[in-house]
Amino acid sequence: MIVDDFHGKRILVVGDIMLDHFVRGSVERVSPEAPALVLRIQSDYWAVGGAGNVATNVSSLGGIGCLVGVVGEDDAARRIDILFDRDANLENHLVTYPSWPTIEKTRFIAGDNHLLRADREGAPAIAGAVEEELVQRIEAAAATCDAIILSDYAKGVVTPAIIAACVLAGRAHGIPVVADPKRANFADYRGCTVLTPNRKEFSLATKMPADSDADVERAAPAAMDQFGGPIVLTRSEQGMSVLHPARPPLHDGARNRELRDVSGAGDTVAAVIALALAAGADLTDAALTANIAAGIVVGKSGTSSVVASELIAAMLQHADSTMLNRKLASLATAKAIRAEWARRGLSVGFTNGCFDIIHRGHVTLLNKARKKCDRLIVALNTDASVRRLKGPARPIQPDGARAEVIAALEAVDMALLFDEDTPMGLIEALQPDVILKGSDYTLETVVGGAFVQSYGGRVELVDLVEGFSTSRIIERSKQLVEAKG
Fold first, then answer.
1. Are 136 and 162 in contact (CB under 8 A)?
2. Could you write out the DSSP letters of every residue in 237-274?
3. Could you give the residue numbers annotated as active site?
4. What gap in Å lies between CA 53 and CA 18, rounded to an integer?
5. CB 21 within 8 A of CB 173
6. Alpha carbon distance 452, 455 (integer Å)
7. Most CB atoms within 10 A, among 86, 112, 182, 392?
8. Helix ranges, 198-330 (H)
9. End-to-end CA distance of the chain
10. C-alpha closest to that of 379 among 366, 394, 395
11. Which residues partner with 252 through β-bridges?
């Protein structure tokens, strides 16, 4: 699944940094002093907002967010430092500018209702020396990153020079640049790979409405002419539109089951698109994945991020998506898919092995195993695990190649790798309904058998085809080589 490929991708996020402060409580009365609600505070917490929330989304989805921006020399900046220190997947490349007050937004919330937002911010211009320092940090960080995000909140950091630096860095290193705009003229972002405006920004730039699919399609040529490239338009409750100069428009409806708070949805979209493009996905698949992620985040209260397991689970609700066509899975994906199979009432089988050289015995075993369950998971030992079990001369084929071959078999519904000597950890995590092994085992010697039986599962032994084994194939190959001299 595409989300598995997000892991470890380094995304450079450049833009306006803020500190978000959430004060939550309940309202039971009106103040006797004035016509104002009295919020009884129950909790408060802080999060890095603006471009920082984009970086946080990158981190929560398995990537590494490298954040470049400006903060002041104040308490808000110090709290941002603390928040960064708590997340190993966030890298702080911020420039400290004493004359720049760190932007802080305090939201007072009762339940899911925002009562008031109080902002602390000034409006100083970025000094030339600070802008030069930002450009240097962009150039240095981009050399190790897989994509760049320009997160423009119109607070003064995303200047023409900063946009140009990101575009040049993207070209120099061959990485995509995703721009989340605030400027009224999309031409200011020319050279970026893709633009992700919301409906209001799109209408402001084109001076045309964007209230329906037809409106969007009429305005699309003007928007793309300004920007000079593809646009992913976020449309709130109407979902998303992918506008590409060389393709017909694609409109994807909103995927959220409930709408609680749209704060930060655009940050999530930019993060997912950048991660997906960095992982080699097509823009359409990247946008569809981002739309699903946005549907998750708007169901949360306050500025929020999406974690990989949430996104995987949500994507499984849209199983016709081309993003789900890979059988190879990480454990996180496998757990989410297994849970979805359980929800649908499907029985799940599990088997494992080295599968070093695939032969008729393997294929027959897997075909027979698949007939005893609705879905079959096959776990393969990694190369290191095989060497410990079989010796330094094995495996013959690397684990990636072995997994690809196993996943290509019709009988196999999912394949994943494990590095331990036994698959016990996978069995405990996936809790299959049945473990299937060859008849050369006994019920007592099957790893995980007792565990599966403890919750009502079963163990079944499958008859083997005599005369086939990887060891015999290797030995026969050696004999042939020796015979030929």
1. no
2. GG-EEEEETTEEEEEE----S--S--TTHHHHHHHHHH
3. 267
4. 9
5. no
6. 6
7. 182
8. 199-206, 213-227, 265-278, 283-297, 308-316
9. 47
10. 366
11. 240
Q: Which residues are annotated as a binding site?
A: 198-201
Burial 131-143 (b: 16+ CB within 10 A, else e): bebbbebbeebbe
Q: Which of 302, 14, 11 is nearest to 152 (CA)?
A: 14
472's tokens: 């015999």
Identity (one letter) of the amino acid at 418? F
3-class state of residue 349 by DSSP: strand
B/e letters for 345-360, b = 16+ CB within 10 Å, e = fewer, are eebbbbbbbbbbbbbe
Q: For strand 348-353 and strand 247-252, is the pairing parallel, antiparallel, or unpaired?
A: unpaired
Q: Which domains does the chain have, with CATH numbers?
A: 2-324 (3.40.1190.20), 331-483 (3.40.50.620)
CA angle centred on 154, ends 137 and 256, rounded to 5°: 100
Q: How far, in Å, CA of 252 to CA of 240, rounded?
A: 5
Strands 10-15 and 64-68: parallel
User: Rounded to an integer, what distance in angstroms lies between the CA atom of residue 17 and that of residue 93?
Assistant: 11
Question: Which residues does 280 contact at the CB level (< 8 Å), separation at least 6?
Answer: 5
SS3 177: strand
Going by C-alpha positions, the residue among 51, 270, 324 that lies closest to residue 278 is 270
Residue 74 and residue 64 in contact, taking contact as beta carbons nearer than 8 Å: no
- Please answer whether residues 145 and 66 qualify as being in contact, where contact means their C-beta atoms are separated by less than 8 angstroms: yes
Residue 55 φ/ψ, nearest 5 degrees? -65, -35
Q: Give the length of the chain.
A: 485
**What is the Cα gyration radius of the chain?**
27
Q: Dmax of the chain from CA atoms?
A: 102
Which amino acids are annotated as binding site for ATP, given as ranges? 198-201
pLDDT (tens digit, 0 to 9) for every residue of the chain, 485 residues total?
Answer: 688 889 899 999 999 999 999 999 999 999 999 999 999 999 999 999 999 999 999 999 999 999 999 999 999 999 999 999 999 999 999 999 998 899 999 999 998 788 999 999 886 788 899 999 999 999 999 999 999 999 999 999 999 999 999 999 999 999 999 999 999 999 999 999 999 999 999 999 999 999 999 999 999 999 999 999 999 999 988 889 999 998 999 998 887 655 555 566 889 999 999 999 999 999 998 999 999 898 888 877 655 688 887 787 777 665 444 444 467 788 887 888 898 899 889 999 999 998 887 778 889 899 999 999 999 999 999 988 888 988 887 888 888 888 888 888 999 999 998 989 999 999 999 999 999 998 888 989 999 999 999 999 999 998 876 655 555 655 666 555 566 65
Distance CA 273, CA 294 (A): 11
